[in-house]
Amino acid sequence: MKFEVDIARDGNQTLTVDGIHIYSKYKPMDHVESFIEKEINHGAEGYLLLGLGLGYHLQSIVKKVKSKKIYVLCVDKQEQEILFNLQFLRIY
Asked: The domain containing residue 44 runs over which residues?
């Protein structure tokens, strides 16, 4: 996979993987917050993310459900490196 990190119009990083935009080119954090707010189920026991990207979805979920387990499946080495370098996360 080819990961390309760029800067969105609002100054945050955005990501393209193999030519497909993972986040908005304009306001990636706003887009993620809106998506997670619509999709989150507060009654769920935990969450599973397939892929990590730049960690924005994970960060948003962590803020909203602090005490629940969140599993992240990363199959690409670059994603694994991003995951282990995230400052807001404790990894077990």
From this structure: 3-85
Cα separation, 40 vs 28, whole angstroms: 18
What is the three-class DSSP state of 78? helix
Instruction: Note whether residue 18 is domain-resident.
Output: yes
How do residues 37-76 score in pLDDT, each as one tens digit? 999 998 999 999 998 888 899 989 999 987 899 998 888 8
Would 56 be classed as within a structural domain?
A: yes
Nearest residue to 71 via CA among 87, 41, 42, 91: 91
Number of domains within the chain: 1
- Judge if pTM exceeds 0.70: yes
Can you tell me the mean pLDDT for 30-40?
95
